Amino acid sequence: MVMSFQFPAYFTAIFIITRVMSIMKISKPLDVHHKDIRAVDLATKLSVDPSAIESASRDFGGIVKAEPEAVLHPSAPQDIAALIKFSYSNSVPFGIAAKGHGHSVRGQAMAENGVVVDMRSMANNRRNGTGIRVSIDRLYADVGGEQLWIDVLNATLEYGLAPVSWTDYLYLTVGGTLSNAGISGQTFRYGPQISNVLEMDVITGKADFLTCSPRMNSELFYAVLGGLGQFGIITRARIPLQPAPKGVKWVRLLYDDFSSFTKDQELLISKNGRKDKSALDYLEGSLLMDQGSPDNWRSSFFPHKDHPKIISLITKHGIIYCLEIVKHYDDRTKHTVDKVN
Ligand SMILES: Cc1cc2nc3c(=O)[nH]c(=O)nc-3n(C[C@H](O)[C@H](O)[C@H](O)COP(=O)(O)OP(=O)(O)OC[C@H]3O[C@@H](n4cnc5c(N)ncnc54)[C@H](O)[C@@H]3O)c2cc1C
């Protein structure tokens, strides 16, 4: 998508935005007791509490550790803008990083000597936070960047609707996965989550609030999606919805032969039209290996009674290949779902 922009215009825009955001990453230590920061009404939301600093210094990966000077607990996007504005107004700005649910594996949401913005604080503030708002008529949800996908699912299901593209694991924030890619078993058919966004509200490195979409501020839109927080902070994303499935047929196919496994997978992936009724709704491949406990091969995905058989297959072949497929059905199609494909 990005490549389709006019070359010079795109690179000029990216250069400017990257420069602005890289200024934010220059790590001049922040003096949280500086009189100017007290004056911008942020002091009460900036925490230097050791447990907040410790939590912001780590992520799921546990490989990198980087201590910020402070953690911002915003109650509204305006707090984030005020922090960025304050940093930008310094002769040498301090680093700022948005943190979603901290499930990065290599320090992507850390800001050494700077400020980590704990986006989840806004989820606790229902009055000022951006929340989750569903448009039933127009089939989209306006979702705060701080929201977890599990909460988006629960909110949209209340109206019988659901987003089209997911991550497998749902305890990740909307801002966090849209800054990456967001992939799951729907990606072969609908694209990753970053291909399923209608528009976003972003706070830029100059603390401007901008709405962007494929037609409005499009350079910013495509830079922020998959941009690892380097081009702005997502405070709202408009996510397209479709009717949630009434029922799902869930099948796991096991192979001991790699060629048959990939041949079948490629065949099933080749039927990927959004409106193609024969296309699967979910498809993922995985490996079951003879290593450690049964949990290494997602044993909970299989009926308990099948475990001994699966373990004997793994022991015999050393490695087993699994295709996990799903087909949605409703009252009209429940009698034919087994015949599709
Ligand atoms: C157990 C586990 C399961 C996973 N499963 C999947 C999966 O099924 N599919 C998949 O695609 N990925 C998966 N991932 C990877 C995960 O999607 C990414 O690491 C994701 O970025 C983490 O989201 P987070 O909310 O924890 O964000 P963080 O780790 O907190 O942040 C990730 C990046 O996004 C930036 N960021 C966070 N919020 C914002 C915002 N509002 N605006 C701008 N930038 C922001 C941060 O600065 C950082 O660069 C998994 C990771 C783990 C640990």
UniProtKB/TrEMBL annotation:
Q: Which GO terms describe its molecular function?
A: cytokinin dehydrogenase activity; FAD binding
Q: Which InterPro entries match?
A: Cytok_DH_C_sf, Cytokinin_DH_FAD/cytokin-bd, FAD-bd_PCMH, FAD-bd_PCMH-like_sf, FAD-bd_PCMH_sub1, FAD-bd_PCMH_sub2, FAD-linked_Oxase-like_C, FAD-linked_Oxidoreductases_BP
**Enzyme Commission no:** 1.5.99.12
Catalytic activity as recorded in UniProt: N(6)-dimethylallyladenine + A + H2O = 3-methyl-2-butenal + adenine + AH2
All residue ranges annotated as the FAD-binding PCMH-type domain in the record: 64-244
**Gene Ontology BP annotations:** cytokinin metabolic process
Enzyme class, UniProt record, top EC level = oxidoreductase
Q: Which cofactor does it need?
A: FAD
Q: Does the keyword Oxidoreductase apply?
A: yes
- What are the record keywords, sorted? FAD, Flavoprotein, Oxidoreductase
Can you tell which superkingdom this protein's organism belongs to?
A: Eukaryota
What family is this protein classified in? Answer: Belongs to the oxygen-dependent FAD-linked oxidoreductase family.
Task: Output this protein's name.
Answer: cytokinin dehydrogenase
Q: Which species is listed as the source? A: Gossypium harknessii
